[in-house]
């Protein structure tokens, strides 16, 4: 087992899929483990955090860790009521995520653990839980550095640039890359539009593209939302998720060395993901790019030391 790594505990978008047709890539929703020796940071508490919690209960080396949230959609918090370390006094957990204050983060996480939705409230957590200052963009936990940035997804949502030993893994579980393109394209076909305005709109598109790419530039590994096929994306524009074709092009443009397609649509069985993966690699070779393209899969490890 590697010393410094990222491990996928949940790769599915929207809701868990415990179906036999989906289990090769995994049915749990978003949860990422980041380890550097005995330092641990967890991003998101989807259903994947439940087995990670069980693993933490079976070991003695780690008693304190960071828990960061990209945002609070159900698929990113639904494992929290069943995350056993939170109920155990030997653990110290520092939590942060989008919010105007630590109290707001505490309130948001507490909402799903209240009657009549759940019988046990966060007040019964016995771990030493601290809510961190939500204004801090850059965190360090031992050798793990985490830089957050805002992405295109409903509500405030963060991506994280994770650095260990000068290797960068960028994690953007939920983001619609072409968020702004459609409204601009609609205006561009307007016959009334003057040449200056057209130029301005094209410039906006270009600026938007580079501001999206900036936090992902030169990632050794980019883990990014690739939920939809082009056919499904056509009817789901504005929902906050990307078509895998856009994700692949973004990885190439950002100079990523490897790409992990993430937030798999719950309606896509394993064989459909295989097809999507094959197309993604064809796009990369057609563009003559050198990006190793993978499908995120439960249990898969990205070793910082071999990136
Ligand atoms: Zn999600
Ligand atoms: Zn979301």
Write the topology of this structure:
Layout: E1 4-10, E2 31-36, E3 39-43, H1 49-57, E4 64-68, H2 74-77, E5 92-96, H3 102-111, E6 128-131, E7 138-141, E8 144-150, E9 158-164, E10 167-172, H4 181-188, H5 195-213, E11 221-225, H6 230-235, H7 244-253, E12 258-262, H8 270-286, E13 292-295, E14 301-303
Parallel strand pairs: 3-4, 4-5, 5-6, 10-11, 11-12, 12-13
Antiparallel strand pairs: 1-2, 1-14, 2-3, 7-8, 8-9, 9-10
The chain binds zinc ion (2 copies).
Question: Which descriptors would you attach to this protein?
Answer:
globular, 307 residues, binds zinc ion, alpha/beta, Metallo-beta-lactamase, Chain A, seven-stranded mixed sheet
Mind explaining what this structure looks like?
The chain is of the alpha/beta class. The protein has a single domain, classed as Ribonuclease Z/Hydroxyacylglutathione hydrolase-like (Metallo-beta-lactamase, Chain A, 4-Layer Sandwich). 27% of the residues lie in helices and 24% in strands. It has eight helices and 14 strands. The radius of gyration is 20 Å and the shape is globular. The two termini are 15 Å apart. One zinc ion binds next to loops.
CA-CA gap between termini: 15 Å
CATH superfamily: Ribonuclease Z/Hydroxyacylglutathione hydrolase-like
What class would the helix/strand composition place it in?
alpha/beta
Q: Provide the spatial order of strands within the biggest beta sheet.
A: 6-5-4-3-2-1-14
Q: Note the overall shape.
A: globular
Number of helices: 8
The parts where pLDDT drops under 50 for at least 5 residues are: none
Share of β-strand residues: 15-25%
Oligomerization state of this entry?
single chain
For the largest beta-sheet, the strand count, sense and barrel status come to: 7 strands, mixed
Write out the distinct hetero groups bound to the structure: zinc ion
* Strand and helix order: EEEHEHEHEEEEEHHEHHEHEE
User: Roughly what percent helix?
Assistant: 25-40%
Q: What is the class in the CATH system?
A: Alpha Beta
Rg estimate, integer Å: 20 Å
